[in-house]
Amino acid sequence: MKSKNKTNALLLVFLSAGHFLFAQIDEKATKETKILYQNLKTISKNHILFGHQHALEYGHGWSNEPDRSDVKSVTGSHPAVVGIDFSDFSGRSKEQVEKAKEILRKNVIATYERGGITTVSWHFNNPASEGGFYWKDGISAASMALIKPGGSHHEQYKGILKTIADFAHSVKAKDGKLSPMIFRPFHEFDGGWFWWGKPHTSREDFIAVWQFTVSYLKDTLGVHNFIYAFSPDNQFNTTQEYLERYPGDNYVDLLGMDDYADFGRDGKYDLEAGLKKLKIFSDLAIQKKKLAAFTETGLESIPNPKWWTDVLLKTLKAAKLELCYVLVWRNDSTSPTHYYAPFPGQVSESDFIEFYNDSFTWFENDIKHIYRLKMKNPEKN
Predict the structure, then answer these.
(1) Domain segments of the chain: what residues?
(2) Which residues are catalytic?
(3) 17: confidence class by pLDDT, cuts 50, 70, 90
(4) String of b and e for 3-16 (b: at least 16 CB within 10 Å)?
(5) 260: phi then psi, degrees, rounded to nearest 5
(6) Whole-model pTM?
(7) pLDDT tens digits for 221-236?
(8) Sequence-ordered strand ranges (E) for 157-283
(9) Cβ atoms of residues 327 and 256 within 8 Å
(10) Which of 15, 99, 239, 242 has its CA 20 to 30 A from that of 282?
(11) Residue 365 gets which letter from DSSP?
């Protein structure tokens, strides 16, 4: 396990004369959100944070237990980055929406108060048709054109964004500060499985909705504790393809990618291709002075006992990448096979501990005071 010196060591950015080194798109972002952004950028130069989706809401064989995560059960530390989802903020009854908001509010505040980081995906239920967030032929409507400014469902969409804004304003911790969140809307948009995917919406409509979403949240609704993440799937091979639906530097803080296919899905590995894609947007982020992250990956059921070190860690170290975090998908509470992080007794448990102990990877115990501006020794012993 990590030494006490190692777990207490935290890189925190020194900002000479009080100036921030990398510009966020929201000039009015809260102090804590700005500090988080800067520290994530600096962490990415020499380390990477580990994240897990729905880590504290439930895990393999359990749900709704305080201060529990499968990652903590294995390593003694929660993941540094905890994923939540706004999926229940629309297409539900008012009572269901409020219940979902309360559960997530406690989760986000607790993560902030422990010194962890929250990232938010959005499996957005189609506001103009049945079918949920997936595209279902004969059921789903191509709704990006309908929710953009001037569209038939634009006012409805504004109401949904108001629900998100109300939540963002509610995550106030005991110190009186709002908990920052990395907001990642319309992810995997280059595939066709979601209703906002490339086959179902034009480039122009996608960009129009993205730009409106960001502007409305921060400029009209006053949300200033979001870092905005742009996250396609792995359906690109060049910088030009990656940027095909990019809404512009004024509307994105973080460049990411979701990639399961190159990292072992269905027994198929193409780590060279995966690394090439990571390098494409990592280099873009360096060029644009943005953050970059491996926003989703993983191997369902983790049948490869050395996946963490031989596949994931080796790839992340194989080139000069500047990624602030890597996040694996959720551990279902009831399914015997749908999990992406180990739990006690799982075949990759010992390899995951090796992954945890590596000086390159940082977990929640390694990032104390990430919302403060201090210079501390960034290296792990």
Answers:
(1) 21-364
(2) 188, 296
(3) very low
(4) eeebbbbbbbbeee
(5) -100, -35
(6) 0.94
(7) 999 999 999 999 999 9
(8) 181-184, 226-230, 254-258
(9) no
(10) 15
(11) G
